[in-house]
Specification:
By secondary structure, this protein is of the alpha/beta class. The protein contains three helices and seven strands. Helix 3 links the parallel strand 4 and strand 5.
């Protein structure tokens, strides 16, 4: 189900949209991201993390695959950020604690390059799609499954 569709023209607007979206997030939520390189996925996640209360700087964990940020925002105690870009095989997902992260009832899990999950895609999730629309515009579509 598509919940909303946005046109974003600057990194600041993408961060602001992430902050706004974070108000809908609760402990246990999983948010998967789709989009090409440079389409704004990490920038949106930076805004989400800021809105949820993460104090550290958010950078894409491309080489580490996953990063954990501890926070204390009501029922949310952890913010998990995964980047599956370098993951070659769906079978390697368990090697970095994937199952523990998505099952943490006190965590929020965000996953970039979620299309690599294939059969492991969580059934209940938010999905954020970021795509180019011309040189500087991005189209962001938010769905809930």
């Amino acid at each position: 189900m598509i919940l909303d569709n946005f046109i974003v023209i600057s990194p600041k607007e993408m961060i602001d949209l992430g902050v706004k979206f974070s108000k809908q997030i609760k402990a246990g939520d999983i948010i998967v991201f789709r989009g090409t390189l440079g389409s704004g996925k990490t920038t949106f996640i930076q805004g989400m993390a800021k809105g949820i209360g993460v104090q550290q700087r958010i950078v894409s964990p491309t080489f580490m695959i996953a990063r954990t940020y501890d926070i204390n925002n009501g029922n949310i105690h952890h913010f998990y950020h995964m980047d599956l870009y370098r993951l070659d095989d769906e079978k390697n997902i368990s090697s970095f604690g994937f199952n523990e992260m998505i099952e943490d009832e006190f965590g929020v899990t965000v996953i970039e390059w979620s299309e690599k999950l294939k059969e492991k895609m969580p059934k209940y999730r938010w999905e954020v799609s970021c795509e180019y629309d011309g040189d500087s515009k991005r189209v962001v579509v938010i769905r809930k499954y």
